[in-house]
């Protein structure tokens, strides 16, 4: 979710309403949605497509489903729900809820693809049990989002006032997809269950959606973030399958279109997502899924081929470093999750004729879907073109997105060999913001060695007033300067100013960073440069500080966060080697080349701090620790200063 108010261009027209006009109104949708479920690319259980799903696409789901069937279902309890309000722990409750939903997804897939009647009935019973447990679950909301405690001081869900959040949308959509594919089987095996699904969805999701306009994720205040498309797309799917009154269904769909329109209108012309690559999938990616479903359901009456989609589709491959590594900003991990629906992105890229995006998506396609993706995404993935297309990632040589001031430049186009430089300007009022204005990532042979730590495990602190007490969010633990030892401020006014834009032939970005620290912009200038000919990255800082150091220190610090193994060399030099990064994070390169760091002035005091990673999310990506290099230079009143770091690939 958002932590501060981000930018949106309120003057931009609404893309959907502009393109679809009357076709997007409830009056027209009543007609265009008639017979909608028969037009979908995901058919019910009777369709022959399910018997044609390749066996190798089911291996992991079949093994996990077989192991868990007959065992007790995950049981989230009130004590788990209450933990968030007591000690800030989110995982105790959310992990059990996700485990329950993933087990249900696997059961549905097995019921669809089992070859004989006896096995199908066993998996139908498993699916029925899982669906009924969700109906009995007191809250579909995640505890971390529920307003029950802030309203009443209570730590148990209020059944009379359900909270409509990401979790509730996910459950509603999952039950909708289950109803769509297994509907006739459910009628035969458990009469009455489908009515229960509809009653629960109406009370917990559809009524709150239609009756209240104070949900922050609607974006009515101009602050539109990833909750908007994530929830609206899920509600659209749920309404399509679980609402029988055509006028009510059309009304819900009209509202979902209005909501998605606010998200799409907020997207800058370059298609950048300020929440980064990881949140693209649960923001822009959800919007693309919602648009596709609307197009199928209406038989093309609302055509999803919109200009704004093209740049959105290109964003993931523009952020690609190599293998499963991507540039991570804000609350994003540096490695792609396993359960991403690359087939969805491939379908859009192919439709748009974006060969780079299509090749990239094809190269990332998993051999089999993961239940963690959610039932709707798994069903689509199972029915994706078979055999799956082969692809080679384009590894484009250069990208620059001016709306977020992000540059990614590669030494060799089409290859991970050598250096990659990524630099970020932006501001500290972005969604899921970290204090990372002016930060830098440098990779060698596709493995990041100067890094951004990324997302730690979420707790109550993550989106509260103590957010910037978390190390991963602080500028002191990003690769940025600290004039007078100051941390960056929080808010959109703490920003970078672009002094020089890069180009594909001269990947050199120059930023004035002073305002990020509450100083005049030009009092600190940072330049990022990749010289492809010499194979060298240069990050140069120069400054002219004000007379007062208060409330900081009398020194200037410049920080770089490194992954792997750091070794100091002679004065003014060090090496960073990927040893220590989990080998799973470096496909085919358990011990690749490292980087040689050199700095000037070599007389700068070097301070080394180890960050021992006890957070499982961070440790899974980076290993046991990250290392912070701090270069400290005494600063005298009003003095000019300069510092340069160069990075080369080790021979």
Summed up:
This protein has 651 residues and is α+β, with helices and mostly antiparallel strands.
Plain-language structure description:
By secondary structure, the protein is an alpha+beta fold. The protein is built from 18 helices and 21 strands. Mean pLDDT is 93; it is low at 1-11. α9 packs across α10 (227-242). Helices cover 35% and strands 18% of the residues. The longest helix is centred in the N-terminal third of the chain and has 24 residues, at 166-189. The strands form five sheets. Strands 11-12-13-14-21-18-17-16 form an eight-stranded antiparallel β-sheet, with no helix packed on it. A five-stranded antiparallel β-sheet has the order 3-4-5-7-8, with no helix packed on it.
What structural keywords apply?
eight-stranded antiparallel sheet; 21 strands; disordered N terminus; 651 residues; 18% strand; five-stranded antiparallel sheet; alpha+beta
* Structural class designation: alpha+beta
> Oligomerization state of this entry?
single chain
Shape: globular
Q: Strand portion, in percent?
A: 15-25%
Mean pLDDT across the residues is 93
Instruction: Give the total of beta strands.
Output: 21
Strand order of the biggest β-sheet? 11-12-13-14-21-18-17-16
Alpha-carbon Rg, integer: 26 Å
Q: What is the helical fraction, as a range of percent? A: 25-40%
Largest sheet: 8 strands, antiparallel
Our count of helices gives 18
């Amino acid at each position: 979710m958002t932590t501060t108010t981000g930018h949106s261009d309120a003057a931009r027209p609404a893309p959907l309403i502009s393109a679809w006009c009357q076709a997007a109104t409830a009056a027209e949708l009543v007609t265009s949605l008639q017979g909608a479920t028969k037009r979908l690319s995901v058919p019910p259980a009777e369709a022959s497509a399910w018997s044609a799903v390749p066996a190798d696409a089911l291996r992991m789901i079949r093994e996990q489903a077989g192991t868990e069937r007959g065992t007790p279902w995950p049981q989230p309890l009130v004590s788990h729900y209450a933990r968030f309000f007591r000690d800030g722990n989110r995982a105790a409750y959310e992990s059990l809820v996700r485990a329950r939903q993933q087990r249900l997804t696997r059961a549905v897939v097995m019921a669809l693809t089992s070859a004989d009647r006896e096995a199908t009935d066993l998996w139908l019973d498993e699916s029925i049990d899982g669906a009924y447990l969700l109906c009995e679950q007191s809250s579909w909301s995640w505890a971390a989002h529920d307003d029950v405690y802030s309203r009443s001081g209570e730590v148990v869900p209020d059944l009379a006032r359900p909270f409509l959040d990401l979790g509730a949308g996910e459950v509603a959509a999952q039950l909708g997809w289950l109803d769509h594919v297994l509907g006739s089987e459910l009628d035969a095996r458990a009469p009455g269950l489908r009515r229960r699904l509809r009653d629960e969805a109406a009370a917990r999701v559809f009524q709150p959606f239609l009756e209240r306009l104070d949900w922050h994720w609607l974006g009515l205040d101009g602050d539109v973030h990833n909750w908007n498309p994530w929830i609206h797309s899920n509600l659209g799917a749920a309404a399509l399958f679980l609402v029988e009154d055509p006028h009510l269904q059309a009304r819900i769909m009209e509202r979902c279109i209005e909501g998605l329109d606010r998200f799409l209108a907020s997207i800058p012309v370059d298609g950048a997502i300020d929440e980064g690559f990881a949140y693209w999938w649960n923001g822009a990616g959800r919007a693309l899924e919602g648009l596709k479903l609307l197009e199928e359901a209406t038989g093309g009456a609302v055509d999803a081929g919109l200009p704004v989609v093209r740049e959105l589709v290109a964003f993931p491959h523009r952020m690609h470093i190599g293998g499963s590594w991507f540039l991570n900003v804000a609350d994003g991990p540096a490695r792609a999750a396993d359960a991403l629906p690359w087939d969805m992105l491939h379908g859009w890229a192919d439709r748009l004729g974006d060969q780079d995006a299509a090749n990239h998506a094809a190269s990332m396609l998993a051999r089999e879907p993961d239940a963690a993706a959610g039932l709707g995404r798994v069903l689509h993935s199972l029915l994706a073109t078979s055999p799956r297309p082969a692809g080679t990632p384009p590894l484009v040589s250069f990208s620059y997105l001016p709306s977020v001031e992000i540059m990614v430049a590669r030494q060799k186009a089409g290859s991970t060999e050598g250096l990659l430089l990524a630099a970020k300007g932006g501001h500290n009022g972005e969604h899921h913001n970290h204090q990372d204005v002016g930060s830098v990532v440098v990779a060698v042979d596709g493995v990041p060695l100067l890094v951004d730590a990324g997302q730690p495990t979420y707790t109550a602190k993550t989106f509260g007033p103590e957010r910037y007490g978390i190390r991963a969010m602080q500028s002191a633990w990003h690769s940025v300067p600290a004039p007078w030892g100051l941390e960056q401020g929080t808010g959109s006014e703490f920003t970078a100013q672009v002094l020089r834009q890069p180009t594909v032939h001269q990947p050199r970005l120059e930023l004035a960073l002073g305002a990020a620290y509450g100083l005049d912009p030009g009092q600190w200038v940072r330049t990022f440069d990749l010289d492809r000919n010499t194979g060298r990255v240069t990050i140069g800082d120069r400054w002219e500080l004000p007379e007062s150091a208060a409330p900081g220190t009398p020194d200037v610090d410049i920080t770089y966060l490194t992954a792997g193994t750091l070794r100091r060399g002679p004065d003014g030099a060090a090496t960073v080697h990927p040893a220590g990064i989990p080998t799973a994070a470096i496909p085919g390169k358990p011990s690749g080349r490292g980087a040689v760091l050199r700095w000037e002035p070599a007389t700068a005091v070097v301070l080394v701090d180890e960050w021992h990673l006890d957070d499982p999310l961070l440790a899974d990506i980076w290993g046991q620790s990250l290392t912070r290099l701090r270069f400290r230079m005494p600063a005298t009143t009003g003095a000019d200063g300069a510092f340069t770091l160069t990075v080369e690939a080790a021979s």
